[in-house]
Prior knowledge:
Helix content: 25-40%
Structural class: alpha/beta
Radius of gyration: 18 Å
CATH topology: Spore Coat Polysaccharide Biosynthesis Protein SpsA, Chain A
Order of helices and strands: HEEEHEHEHEHEEHHHEHH
CATH class: Alpha Beta
Largest sheet: 7 strands, mixed
Shape: globular
Number of domains: 1
Amino acid sequence: MEGASSWTSRAELNMAKVVASIEARMGSSRLPGKVLADIGGKPALTRLLERLRRCRHLDAVVLATSTNPDDDKLAQWADEQSIPCHRGSEDDVLRRVVEAHRKTRSDVVVEVTGDCPLLDPDLLDMGIEMFHANECDVVSNVHPVSYPQGVDVQVFKFAALETIEQRIDDAAVREHVSLYFYENPDKYRILALISPRRWHAPNYRFQLDYPEDLAFIRAVYDRLEPAHGGADFGVEEILALIRSEPALLRINENCEEKPAR
């Protein structure tokens, strides 16, 4: 069966190289240059990278950006941050990400988009631990959605993603890296990471797509970073902040997620 999974033992998984790829480019119809937007004195990508560097189970991080000259700034940023950068097709994101992981010799892919400067490292570690502890192809908290949007966890086998890249030409699949997994659950064992009740907030937007999202994220950092002596806060603290200041949700409540199809 095309795309069918092949089980990997837990021992092999525990020896696997786990790499997070950040998908980012400067072009954006809703908020151009958003991934380098200033958040409390640092670019959004730097905020994201700081969070990834707090993950205990990541072996490496790679930036997957495009060859568009506009993205020269992102390649320069990666160099300044001392992380590898792969530049590939602007439109074929799937191929770009696969090429990036091939260069880093990844065994396990952690898919990260550059518009998630509130990503929770503890939650990401939880997803990686869940992946290692089970015989599965994918661990995800985005299908079904139970956590706030923008603290996405997507962990899967590089070999499975590479096979999809080689065989599937569907335009939506080429643009949305992990889409094929979710649209073909009969071919893959997908484990859903479901939020505890206190974190269940699938309609909250923690990602960066619109100017209103940027205003919300800046407000979160402005309030929580001084209180925590840095950016060492996650879903628990952000939701507690929202409970104390529910008006924050009104900042980006009218923003809508663009569907994959």
